[in-house]
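Severity: low
Component: inverse-folding endpoint
Summary: output formatting inconsistent between runs
Steps to reproduce: submit the following structure tokens with default settings.
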């Protein structure tokens, strides 16, 4: 850690609680050595910190940095001091490169113990040692030791060991200074969440300060992004989807950080989350209104739906959640709108046909009840009545107006196979009742196969009905034998015609 390796006390070659006399003596010695170019070494260079390069400028700067009481305290928190027999022994081990022994002593007098007059310096020294580690667990332990020292009643003893005995200090402000220094050091080393985890064992006051430090910037960034998106949306409604998607992407990490820091019950978090969700909803609404037309309807609907789902995942307040859900429900209903409308129209025609057939059957049944012994029903005429029970030309006209080519293209993209099957059955039913010319007018309804077979079948049925009508007339006029011959000829003609069509 830079704060320790290039600490002014280390460059000066002294411990942080060195007396004024020791400090002046060391200053004179180092200056004399640097002037003649002689290498300067100190018992407190410590092997674990690596090599150190002292120059006349760096030495002068080091002594200058520890002249003021506040500076002495600031730098002492990132260095070692010898204020007890425990420290004396541990530092001797440290000077000789026996780090494990030094660590064992400091841990023994601090682990599961409160800060007291005999161990306050051990808390500081242990913290400094642990902060040198690359292990997150060790760094966390080092931070906790430092904060525990500063928060204790014996921090004053530490301050008076490294600064003037008359010097007064604000523990809370000193704790914040330490945290600020550590945050600056960790900025490019750990993520925000990792850094927060390093402080997770500290007291509530520290947590509140960290929360404030970590929330101010992301809150400001999210609010700025929302305002920027709002301006762009109003200026260019057609591209509101792109603006909203960028807003969601750019604020995702900051919102996640705020959520982990503040929690979903925090009023600040709720407010900014709802503001963000509301802007995404506004973008989705504007985008949908501006672009929902023509062949791109399905794409626009899916894009808007995605934005509403993003907003729902962010929103915390009931009003914003309900607003997002309402839009999602509306778009879900619209998803198969063309298919539902087509099924409804085709079903109404089938129902009308069924009703007409039932009425004809009822009339026939009534006639049978009222007929005399020698009377018969002309079922050929009944069949003709049934075939023409609806004005099929008018039906084709209604279908053409109610189901467009674009609607059928939308139906093709639908994924609801149950409804697709129902639609196909209704189209097949309709085509079974129409003539070839009528089928040709609305053949686009049958997108899944060629309609020529249906037209051929319709043609054959029409010829068959004509033949039956003709045969019936012939039977009345010429007698039964000619009728039977005529029917045989017509059947052979139909077979020949169908062989030509399906050849």
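Observed output (run 2 of 3):
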């Amino acid at each position: 850690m830079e704060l320790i390796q290039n600490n002014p006390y280390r460059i000066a070659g002294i411990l942080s609680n060195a007396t004024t006399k020791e400090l002046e003596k060391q200053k004179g010695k180092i200056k004399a050595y640097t002037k003649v170019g002689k290498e300067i070494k100190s018992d407190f260079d410590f092997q674990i910190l690596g090599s150190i390069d002292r120059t006349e400028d760096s030495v002068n700067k080091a002594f200058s940095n520890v002249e003021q009481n506040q500076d002495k305290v600031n730098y002492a928190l990132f260095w070692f001091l010898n204020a007890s027999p425990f420290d004396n022994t541990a530092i001797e081990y440290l000077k000789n490169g026996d780090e494990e022994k030094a660590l064992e002593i400091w841990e023994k007098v601090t682990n599961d113990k409160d800060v007291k007059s005999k161990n306050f310096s051990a808390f500081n020294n242990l913290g400094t040692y642990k902060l040198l580690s690359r292990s997150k667990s060790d760094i966390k332990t080092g931070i906790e030791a430092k904060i525990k020292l500063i928060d204790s009643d014996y921090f004053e003893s530490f301050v008076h060991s490294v600064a003037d005995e008359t010097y007064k200090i604000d523990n809370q402000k000193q704790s914040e200074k330490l945290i600020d220094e550590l945050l600056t050091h960790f900025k490019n080393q750990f993520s925000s969440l990792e850094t927060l985890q390093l402080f997770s064992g500290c007291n509530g006051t520290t947590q509140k300060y960290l929360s404030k430090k970590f929330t101010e910037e992301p809150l400001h960034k999210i609010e700025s992004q929302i305002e920027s998106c709002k301006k762009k949306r109003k200026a260019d409604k057609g591209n509101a989807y792109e603006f909203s998607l960028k807003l969601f992407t750019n604020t995702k990490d900051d919102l996640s950080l705020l959520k982990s820091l503040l929690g979903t019950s925090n009023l600040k978090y709720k407010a900014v989350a709802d503001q963000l969700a509301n802007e995404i909803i506004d973008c989705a609404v504007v985008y949908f209104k501006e672009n929902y037309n023509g062949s791109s309807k399905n794409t626009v609907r899916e894009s808007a739906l995605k934005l509403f789902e993003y907003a729902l995942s962010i929103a915390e307040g009931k009003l914003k959640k309900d607003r997002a859900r309402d839009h999602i429900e509306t778009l879900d209903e619209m998803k198969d709108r063309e298919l539902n409308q087509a099924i409804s129209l085709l079903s109404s025609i089938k129902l009308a046909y069924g009703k007409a057939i039932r009425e004809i059957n009822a009339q026939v049944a009534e006639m049978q009840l009222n007929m005399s012994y020698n009377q018969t029903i002309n079922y050929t005429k009944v069949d003709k009545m049934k075939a023409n029970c609806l004005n099929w030309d008018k039906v084709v006209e209604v279908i053409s107006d109610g189901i467009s080519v674009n609607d059928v293209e939308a139906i093709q993209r639908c994924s609801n196979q149950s409804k697709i099957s129902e639609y196909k059955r209704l189209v097949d039913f309709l085509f079974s009742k129409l003539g070839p010319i009528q089928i040709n007018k609305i053949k686009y309804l049958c997108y899944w196969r060629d309609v020529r077979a249906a037209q051929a079948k319709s043609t054959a049925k029409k010829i068959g009905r004509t033949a039956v009508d003709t045969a019936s007339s012939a039977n009345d006029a010429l007698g039964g034998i000619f009728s039977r011959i005529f029917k045989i000829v017509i059947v052979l003609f139909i077979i020949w015609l169908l062989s030509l069509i399906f050849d």
